[in-house]
Structures are given as structure tokens and as C-alpha cells.
Write a structure and sequence with these properties.
Elements lengths: L6 H8 L10 H31 L8 H29 L19 H22 L3 H19 L8 H6 L5 H12 L1 H6 L1 H21 L1 H17 L4 H53 L1
Helix pairs in contact: 1-10, 2-3, 2-4, 3-4, 3-7, 4-5, 5-11, 7-9, 9-11, 10-11
């Protein structure tokens, strides 16, 4: 991975401005239909889960736990689907590295399904997360940023669809154990009943998150920012600068979020390790006293 762009790369990427701004109308219409379909399907799935969890509540119980549980299980299914689909395309269908620099920018229209699913997913998550689940401001910010970069891939000719199996697919596999972990958190009694299982889920989540959203994310995002930066640098009008600049800002913002979350995970792992060491030392001290 080169940190500096060559003259050939700048010229090749700059030449892509001769492409139309938007994908053909029929493709955009198809993407809009697919986004709407995704929103509808996810909504139905979540409502089914909601009824299941509501039926298990006693009369007069707080409904918020049912909303949170249905939200988490819906997230689990969507993220599992995206993660598996992303892994398949990332490792088995795409030439890696890309054959040419321009391939990172244009083409791969069939992969816009990833951006369509992600946009629909985030459009569902925004209102449900805000009004019914109480999502953090960081997560709401994340949903908006994904919609911004998703629109670039879904509707624009130079849409960087080559990277969508990774950024919109593969990385979501880390959210599968996260959904399970969050379900445990909504039911503290489960943590008490199955502490070992909860610990294992947390460990799996930590390892997978740090692998895909730090170790793999950083070089992939750097390469995307570099390529998008060249395309932005060679723009010849204000709307081009604004659109690509906004996408780069969203990509950078998503990277900052990953690093913030990663730092919290590492901090938690260190605390857990330190706590385990203290418990072990305490047990040894007690054993010595008994002796």
C-alpha cells in the first residue's frame, strides 16, 4: 500500500470525471425499489420479533425490553446476512488487488446491492433506534454517515462499489456477537445464569471487532480515502467537490467511531485481565492463609 499517489494514478482517476455523474435511470429506479423493499422486510421481521417478545412479558410490564430485544435480534439477522455475503464476495469473487486503479472507482454495478441493503437498513434503524430503543448519539451519527457514503455507491457512476463487500458487508460480521451481547445486557438475569457464555460472547465480539474493524479496516479505509481524495482533488466543479468531500468526511467520521469503540474494547479487556489477576492473587493469598 503506497502512501503517495503516482502521476499515473492521478491521471487515470482524474480521467474518470468524463463519466456521467449518475448511474443510468433504470439502475437508480431499481436501487430505490430495493431500498424500499429492504426497509419493508426489516420492519416486518422486527415487528414479528416484537410480538414474540411482548407475548413473553407479564401484563403491565415495561414494553421497552421487548422493543430492545426485537431490535437486537433483527440486527443479528441483517448483520449475519450482510457479513456472510460480504465475506463471500470479498474473498471469492473480487480480484484482489483491483486490476486497475479505476476499477476501485467505477463499475461493479451489481455490487450496489450492498449499498441498497445498507441504506434501507439504516433508514429503518434511525427512527426505531431513536424513538423506541434509545440508541446512543454515536450510533445515530453512525447511521447517518452510512447513508451518506451508501448513496455514493448506490446512485453515482464513480461510486467505489469495488469496496462495498468489505465496508457494507464483511465488517458487519462483528455485529453478530454484539447483538447477542446486547441481548444479555437487556436481561441481567441471563448474565447471572450463564456468566461463562456471556464472557465467551464478549471475547468473541472483541476479537472479531478488533480484527475486521481495526486491523482490516485501517488499510482498506486509507486506500479508499486516498483514491477518493484524488478524485475529489481533480474535480472541476463545486458540486463534485461537495459530494466527494462529504463522502470523505463521512468515511473519516466512521473511522473515528471505529477507533473510539476499539479503544473501549481494549480498555475493557485490560480491566478484565487485571480483575482476573487480582482474583487469582486473592485466591492464592486465601489458600496460603489456610495453610
Amino acid at each position: 500500500m503506497s502512501f503517495l499517489a503516482t502521476t499515473e494514478e492521478i491521471e487515470e482517476i482524474g480521467a474518470l470525471h468524463s463519466n456521467p455523474a449518475f448511474l443510468p435511470d433504470h439502475h437508480i429506479d431499481q436501487s430505490l425499489r430495493q431500498i424500499g423493499t429492504v426497509v419493508a422486510i426489516i420492519t416486518v421481521v422486527q415487528l414479528v420479533f416484537l410480538q414474540i417478545f411482548r407475548s413473553r412479558l407479564s401484563k403491565g410490564s415495561d414494553q421497552s425490553s421487548a422493543w430492545k430485544s426485537s431490535y437486537q435480534f433483527t440486527n443479528l439477522l441483517v448483520n449475519l446476512f450482510l457479513g456472510v455475503l460480504g465475506i463471500y464476495h470479498y474473498y471469492f469473487t473480487l480480484p484482489r488487488p483491483a486490476l486497475t486503479v479505476s476499477e476501485k472507482v467505477e463499475g461493479w454495478e451489481s455490487l450496489s446491492i450492498f449499498s441498497d441493503i445498507q441504506i434501507g437498513y439504516q433508514l429503518w434503524a434511525l427512527p426505531v433506534g431513536y424513538f423506541f430503543v434509545g440508541e446512543t448519539s454515536g450510533m445515530m451519527f453512525h447511521h447517518v454517515q452510512v447513508v451518506v457514503v451508501g448513496c455514493l455507491s448506490a446512485f453515482f457512476w464513480n461510486g467505489f462499489r469495488y469496496v462495498t463487500p468489505f465496508f457494507y458487508g464483511l465488517i458487519e460480521i462483528s455485529s453478530v456477537p454484539l447483538s447477542v451481547m446486547n441481548y444479555f445486557k437487556t436481561r441481567p438475569e441471563l448474565i447471572k445464569e450463564r456468566p461463562t457464555m456471556y464472557t465467551v460472547v464478549r471475547l468473541i465480539f472483541s476479537v472479531v471487532f478488533l480484527t475486521v474493524r481495526v486491523v482490516m479496516w485501517v488499510p482498506n479505509m486509507f486506500d479508499w480515502l486516498k483514491t477518493c481524495g484524488i478524485l475529489c482533488y481533480t474535480c472541476d466543479n463545486a458540486s463534485c467537490y461537495a459530494g466527494l468531500g462529504l463522502s470523505m468526511l463521512a468515511g473519516f467520521g466512521l473511522t473515528v467511531l471505529q477507533m473510539v469503540w476499539a479503544s473501549k474494547i481494549v480498555e475493557g479487556l485490560l480491566k478484565a485481565a487485571a480483575g482476573g489477576g487480582k482474583k487469582k492473587k486473592s485466591a492464592e493469598d486465601n489458600s496460603e492463609k489456610k495453610d
